[in-house]
Amino acid sequence: MSGIVGFVGKEAAALSLLKSLKNLEYRGYDSVGIATVTDGLLWYGKDTGKLDEVWQKHCLEGLPGKIGVGHLRWATHGGITTANAHPHFDCRNEIAVVHNGIIENYQQLRSQLEAKHRFVSGTDTEVIPHLIEEYMDAGVSLEQAVRQATEQIRGSYALVVVSSREREKIVATHRNSSLVVGLDMDRKFVASDALAFRDQTSQIAFLEDGETVVLDEDIVFLDREGKQSKKVFTQMDPNWNMATKEGHDFFMMKEIAEAPEAMRCALMQDEKLILEMAMDILRSKQVVFTACGTSRYAALVGRYLFSKLAGKFCDVIMASEFQYFSDSVDRNTLVIAISQSGETADVLEGVKKARENGAMIFSLVNMVDSSIAAMSDRVIYLNCGPEVGVAATKTFVSQLTILYLLAFTMANRVEEGVGKIKDVCQKVEEILKRNGTKLRELAERTKDRDDFYYIARGINFAIAAEGALKLKEVSCIHAEGMPAGELKHGTLALIEEGTPVVVICPKDFTFEETLVNAMETKARGAFVIGVSDERNPVFDEWIEIHKVEEIFYPLVTVVPLQLLAYYLAVARGQDPDKPRNLAKSIVVK
Ligand code: AGP
Q1: Which of 340, 402, 472, 580 to mutate to test the pocket of ligand 1 (most atoms within 8 A of CB)?
Q2: What is the pLDDT of residues 206-215, one digit of tens each?
Q3: Which residue among 15, 283, 303, 309 is least crowded, i.e. fewest CB within 10 A of its CB?
Q4: Where are the alpha helices (DSSP H) in 240-367?
Q5: Ligand 1 pocket, residue 222 CB under 6 Å
């Protein structure tokens, strides 16, 4: 996904755009660009690289004008080049467009337009300013031209458009890609999410799919048919105003440290809603979780909990593969979609198909008003505030907390469950305090290794997989997580002298068996890092966790693994908040 912003006011647009883009940096950091308008002239600057570098290199602060648009790119169509950076322009550089999403029919549109129009980039976006140019040349207003252009395009888009031909306004619209408007007296904002202007205003209004907004002296909303419509501005959730590092070097560290608070907030749910959802899950003929990445690992823990506590078997299907099982999804199916962003395209696609087939949809999301939430029959919000680091950390423990809550409710033991989760919360707090120095030293010691392996059994297998994903994502070290028993079926061949093997083996019913697998790796030279509440001679390093009831180990084992990934990223000079090639939510398939 990319980040788009727009500003109209009585002060320099460039400064406001910079503030907004800074807040959206987690959405993409392949390239940066802005365009402003003043005295009938369009000014712009764009380049590859991170926001601060591009801003300084091109002195973007100096761009004149009180109206402008800005963009942070996460590349999809076209390489990471200056020509492909947004904004994109019409033939006369009078119309500037920033876009988030994918235009599916851009090749067809481009070949129609190429006879008359000059294209300079390899992006799908560039067809949009040329389409707008066509309509404006035919004599319609900027907003009409934007609306007519969007009638031609298929796919997902959020657009903000500015033109020196109509110098007092910006126009924004979207389909299948979020867009929020902000208002503060005579300053007006638009952005792909409300975090963008969290430090400039708290009055926000969400645009519905197909709606358009025109920002000038006034704010005019147009519905899908182009008729003026009314919109009520609401107050932004105060939690979303707290997205600062608060003294930490990186958001990832701050967000790992917020785990106990996130767990407490996740517990604050409408009891009736949870009870009704638990009953629906128990009643459903087939229950399928669908999710990607870290959220899928939360689903794997959820599957285990539903089975263990409530005797309910469920399946977990990776969202990018879910649509291929749609033959088996019908009105007897309950789909539980897990997605912190609520915008992941793979999850959205599967959910859409399941819905068409008559399935009931439940979702666990963090972003209020997100597309997946809108498509669900029932939604549980994680309530953990914004997660800015691209790596999911506190949202993962929030997802787990809600799955515990549901499972205990399904087992008719909700009060007992809540009490136990609160106890585990304290243990997580202590683990966070206890392990910092040790994990930092361990990271220094292992930072030059090329491969890490993570093994565990039972409910903790998902944590092995999550530990490995986190490491790959933020430190760019190759890692694999797998059930400990699976190791000998192939991967053991890769273990050599000094290979780090992280063994998650709490003192539960999996302890003895997992230790046997750890010994198998040690016999081949592995450097064994044990994550356990009991020390064992097979461990070369011991990461001590607290003793908890068996089903709760995922919550206490995942936090040190998040920290290990973080310290390894820092030790290798990587920015853990902005992992290479990734973005916070993946809105492409
Ligand atoms: C997690 O650290 C990753 N950034 C990634 O795997 C993520 O969990 C995945 O893209 C799913 O995102 P979602 O929860 O927003 O749907």
Answers
A1: 340
A2: 898 899 999 9
A3: 283
A4: 251-257, 259-267, 271-283, 293-310, 319-322, 345-356
A5: no
